[in-house]
Structures are given as C-alpha cells and as structure tokens.
Specification:
340 residues; two-stranded antiparallel ribbon; alpha+beta; single chain
C-alpha cells in the first residue's frame, strides 16, 4: 500500500496548489531482505561482511560496451554488442550470487560454489520494519500532507478531498482511504465560533436594549458596531500581513464581546440623557460621550497594555502570540458608534 501511495497518489497530491510536502509513513519501499543463517555461515567459514561485499560487487550497473567498435583493425569484420546483467531484481537472482569458490585441487573433486541461497533466505519485503500503520486494526499506509506557508488551509483540504475521490475510482479492489486526522477541522470550528459569537452578541444586545431602554432605534447602534469593528480589524490584519487563522479568529471572538459592551454603555448613557434630561439626541450623545469617553479609552489602553507586549516576544512563542495580540489591539482601537 505504501508503494502504491508512492507511485499513484503522492505525485497527484503534490501538484495541488498550496501543498508543500507529502510524507509517506507506516511502511517503506520495497527492499530485498536477506536473512542469514549463522550456523551455515560458520560451517562455510563466512562472515556477514563477506556476504555484504559479494552483494555489493555483483549487484552493480555497468556499461558493457561493444567489441569491434571503430577504430578497429582492417580485418575486423564484425561488431558485437556486449550485454550484461545489471541490477538484480528478484529473489532468485540474489540467491545465485556467488559468495565463495573452493577450487577442485583443494577438494580433490569438482569445484564447489557457495551462493547466497546456501546460507540465507532471500525474499522481497520492506526496507525497514521499524514503523507500521494500522487503522481500525487493519494494515494501512499513511500520508501526511503539509501545506505551504500562507496557503489557504480550507481550500487545500477541499482540493485534496476532491483529488482522493477521483483517485478512489481507480483503487484496486479492497483498498480504501480515510482521513483520520484533519487539522482544518479546528479552523472550521473557529470560523463557526466567530459566527456563533456574532449571533449571540446580536441577540443579547437586542434583548438588553429592548428590555432596559425599550427603544427600537437604539438597537441599530450596536448592530453597526460589530461590522464596523470587524472591517477595521481585517484592514489592520491585511496591513500587518496576517491571515485568517485560529489565532486571529480567537482574537476577534474575544474583542467582539468587549466592543459590544462598550456600545451598550454608550447607547444607554445617551438614552438616559434623552429620557430624563430632555436633551435632543445630538446634544445627549455629545454629553454621553463626554462622560464615558474617558473610561472607554482607559479600558482600551489597559487591554492594549496587556496584549501589545506579547507581540514583542521572540521565537515561536512570539510568532504565535503576535497575531493574537495585535488582532485584539486592532479591533479595540475602533470607537463604538454613538447615538444618532
């Protein structure tokens, strides 16, 4: 299965845009396994090194050339092409490798040849047996697909599934594929969590404002807060070279709740001056912003003071926290819309 994955699957997946590397694990490529018998080696006065040296000497690829090739003597009428056996391919050929020759004079009879098959068992198997792969108790071959830096993980995963569904049509009988580990699930869940947070924030804001202010117009202000904040955050992320990933989405989820809280505070304060002080909406908003602008800016500065230092951490830790911290800081720097 690993050999089939190497020949028929790996190259197809490697050509997908966004795929950086593919590693096949669980088994290995084909190899010629030679299992030596220590007793037979000892009886013939041979060692492991003798077997290795004989295999290296006789399992080679050589250029045999030709006989009678020009320039040649005038009386040379024929030209012969010499063909030799190059790399050995099957167990029988490896078994015929000569390890030792004992001349007839020494034995007093016909010469005796010692071959690999006389002292070992030769079979075609895996190069190594240090690792293996099982799925549900059944033997399998694993492919680990790594994406290029900056590639869209969801798009790459979608194309890989489409390619595997197409390759599945030509699989041998009994061969199936599955995806037991998919890192894009976490990205999809993060995106789903952002949508969920937006919906929950909208519903909670609607309930809070309707219950305490009983003003439909006031609900429109927080409804515009989150979209404006997210648009500004994405603009800042683009300027900083950040992509939409689990870290930036996590930062957005946290920041959305804080922004909605600020919007509710500002709207409630403006509505208070309209209802109790009888001020017009514009003057009420100006007065309300003058009262809560300091605390809102203070909260923003405190949060930025907490998260921004993490953006200057070094190493892999800094790379991870930098996107998270700067996303929250970019989201917090956008003021909440005021009461019209």
């Amino acid at each position: 299965m690993s050999n089939y994955a190497t020949l028929r699957v790996k190259d197809v997946l490697s050509r997908i845009r966004g795929v950086g590397d593919i590693n096949i694990f669980g088994s290995s490529n084909y190899g010629m396994r030679i299992w030596l018998d220590p007793e037979k080696l000892k009886a013939r006065n041979l060692t492991n090194l003798d077997v290795l040296d004989a295999i290296r000497e006789q399992n080679v690829q050589v250029a045999a050339g030709q006989i009678g090739q020009p320039p040649a003597p005038p009386d040379q009428d024929f030209q012969y092409t010499v063909t030799t056996l190059g790399r050995l391919a099957d167990p029988e050929q490896f078994g015929e490798i000569i390890l030792k020759t004992e001349p007839a004079e020494k034995l007093g009879s016909a010469a005796r040849l010692t071959r690999v098959k006389d002292v070992a068992r030769v079979e075609l198997g895996g190069q190594t047996y240090d690792q293996w792969c099982d799925v549900g108790g059944k033997p399998a071959a694993g492919l680990a697909v790594y994406q290029l830096p900056g590639a869209n993980a969801l798009d790459v995963a979608h194309k890989i599934r489409a390619a595997m569904d197409e390759l599945k049509k030509s699989f041998p009988r009994g061969l199936e594929y599955s995806i037991p580990f998919n890192t894009t699930i976490f990205v999809e869940e993060s995106i789903h969590e952002v949508y969920k947070t937006l919906f929950e924030a909208g519903v909670l804001v609607l309930i809070v404002i309707l219950v305490f202010l009983q003003d439909w117009r006031a609900t429109l202000v927080p409804a515009t807060t989150v979209p404006v904040t997210i648009i500004g955050a994405f603009a800042a992320m683009y300027a900083l070279g950040f992509s939409v990933n689990m870290l930036t989405l996590f930062g957005l989820v946290l920041a959305i709740g804080i922004v909605v809280d600020d919007a509710i505070v500002i709207v409630e304060n403006a509505a208070h001056h309209i209802d109790h002080d009888g001020l017009p909406p514009k003057q009420a908003t100006i007065k309300a912003m003058g009262e809560v602008l300091g605390p809102v800016i203070g909260i923003t500065l405190v949060l930025m003071a907490v998260f921004l230092p993490t953006a200057f951490l070094g190493g892999i830790t800094g790379q991870l926290y930098r996107q998270f911290a700067l996303t929250i800081a970019a989201t917090r720097r956008h003021p909440a819309p005021s009461m019209p």
